[in-house]
Write a structure and sequence with these properties.
The chain is of the alpha+beta class. It contains 3 helices and 11 strands; from the N terminus they run ααβαββββββββββ. The chain has one domain.
């Protein structure tokens, strides 16, 4: 009887630990930001780790990530304060949106950026260091409005794309988001 009690105790402790384990996306964002996302972007919610495919989450962890492909943080506008790049999950349908939340005191100013990704389970976000980025040679066609052949990011860049496929890098330049395709 003691053995059964001990087994049940261990199982219940393990289950409580799993239930209390914080989502790797949620812990990166202040609760106030999550609440503002829900009121600002009707029809979308803040990302959760399991919004992405399990193989992409595993790959991210094996390569030093925390398993969350839907949130990246950096100073995207050069004011010395941490900002957020967020892949919002649609409540209905598959088409996600990506937003940059620039921190303004205890509030955020949202900028929606295009990801070109049709399904949330493949969308990733990534902060990249300041530097010069060049349009991928594999991309055919003319440069679109807002797009550049190359781009010098004075501050951290915001990259979005589909895992194992695309990458579009955005830089905040003089109050405007410019972009360059870095992979296709």
């Amino acid at each position: 009887m003691r053995i059964i009690f001990l087994i049940l105790l261990i199982v219940s402790i393990c289950c409580v630990e799993v239930a209390n384990a914080a989502d790797s996306c949620t812990v990166q964002m202040p609760q106030k930001l999550i609440a503002k996302i829900e009121t600002t972007f009707k029809g979308y919610r803040a990302p959760l780790e399991n919004d992405n495919l399990s193989e992409d989450i595993i790959f991210d962890r094996k390569n030093g990530g925390n398993g969350c492909l839907g949130v990246a943080t950096a100073d995207f506008d050069g004011d010395g304060v941490k900002d957020f790049l967020i892949a919002l999950t649609p409540l209905k349908g598959d088409t996600p949106i990506a937003v940059v939340a620039l921190t303004r005191g205890d509030d955020w100013h949202f900028h929606t950026i295009r990801s070109w990704v049709e399904h949330r389970n493949r969308l990733y976000t990534q902060a990249v260091p300041a530097g010069r980025y060049v349009r991928t040679e594999s991309l055919e066609g003319a440069v679109a409005e807002g797009e550049r052949e190359s781009l010098e990011c004075k501050y951290s860049g915001a990259q979005v794309g589909a895992t194992e496929s695309t990458g579009v890098l955005y830089c905040y330049v003089n109050g405007t988001w410019l972009y360059v395709w870095v992979s296709d």
